[in-house]
Amino acid sequence: MTVLEIDRPTLDLEDIVESAASALEGAPALEVIRWASATFGDRICLTSSMSDAALIHLVSKVKPGIDVLFVDTGYHFAETIGTRDAVEAVYPVNVINVTPSRTVAEQEAALGPRLYGRNPDLCCHLRKVEPLGRALEGYMAWFSGIRRDETASRRDRRVVEWDRKRGMVKVNPILGWTQEDMDNYMSDNGVLVNPLHYDGYPSIGCEPCTSRVEPGDDPRSGRWAGMGKTECGIHL
C-alpha cells in the first residue's frame, strides 16, 4: 500500500507521517492537499490568520466546504477582520471564528492591562495557542500555511508532520514556496489579500504587536519588534 492508498478506517496517524513526509517532499501543493483530503476526509480543517487567502483558495479547489479556523484574539486590525468577512463571502469554505476563553476586558481585569507588552508569550498562549488547541480537538489533521523562508525555526519543518503537542497530523502544503511564489500565485489567481500588505505590513499579527517594516527589511521584523520574539507559539 503506497502513501496515497491509505485505508482511512485503519489509519494509525503517527505511523503514516514519516512515509507521507518523504513521499510528498517537493510535491506540488495541490498534490499534498489531495492526499490529505483523501486521507482525512471531513476530519481535516484549515487555519488562517487572514493575512491572505492563498491557502484557502488552494484547499477550497480540492475540498470545498472545508472548515477554516480563524482565531479572533480581540486585538486584530480592522483590516484583518474585514479580510475574514470577505473570505467567508467569496470562497466556498466554512469560516469558524475561534475566541479565547476570556474577552480582552476580562483578561485585563484578571492579569492587568497590556499583557502583550509585559509578557507577550503568555498573551499569545492565552489568546492564540490555547483557543486554537481547543478548536482543533475535533479533527485528525490540519492544514497550515507556514513556509520555510519565513523564520529560522521553520527551515527544518516537513510537508507532513506529527503535531505532538496536539496529538494530530499537521500538513504544510506551501512549505517550500518563496514570497515570490506567493505573490505570483495571488496575482495570477486574484486571491484576496489583507490590505495592510500594501501599507507596509508584510507579516500581520495582532495590532499592538505589529508594526510597519521598511522596504528591504526582514518581512517579520515588524512582529513583536524589540521583544526577542519571532513566533506566537502555534507552530512551535
TrEMBL record:
UniProt protein name: Adenosine 5'-phosphosulfate reductase
Single annotated GO MF: adenylyl-sulfate reductase (thioredoxin) activity
Recorded catalytic activity of this chain's protein: [thioredoxin]-disulfide + sulfite + AMP + 2 H(+) = adenosine 5'-phosphosulfate + [thioredoxin]-dithiol
Required cofactor(s): [4Fe-4S] cluster
Residues binding [4Fe-4S] cluster, per UniProt: C123, C124, C206, C209
Subcellular location: Cytoplasm
Sequence similarity: Belongs to the PAPS reductase family. CysH subfamily.
Note on how the cofactor is bound: Binds 1 [4Fe-4S] cluster per subunit.
EC category: oxidoreductase
Domain Phosphoadenosine phosphosulphate reductase positions: 49-211
Organism: Actinomadura rayongensis
EC code: 1.8.4.10
Gene Ontology annotations for the cellular component aspect, listed alphabetically: cytoplasm
Residue numbers annotated as active site: C232
PANTHER family found in the cross-reference section: PHOSPHOADENOSINE PHOSPHOSULFATE REDUCTASE
Pathway as given in its UniProt record: Sulfur metabolism; hydrogen sulfide biosynthesis; sulfite from sulfate
Signal sequence, start to end: none
Keywords of this entry: Cytoplasm, Iron, Iron-sulfur, Metal-binding, Oxidoreductase
Coarse class of the protein's main subcellular location: cytoplasm
Primary role: Catalyzes the formation of sulfite from adenosine 5'-phosphosulfate (APS) using thioredoxin as an electron donor.
GO biological process: hydrogen sulfide biosynthetic process; sulfate assimilation, phosphoadenylyl sulfate reduction by phosphoadenylyl-sulfate reductase (thioredoxin)
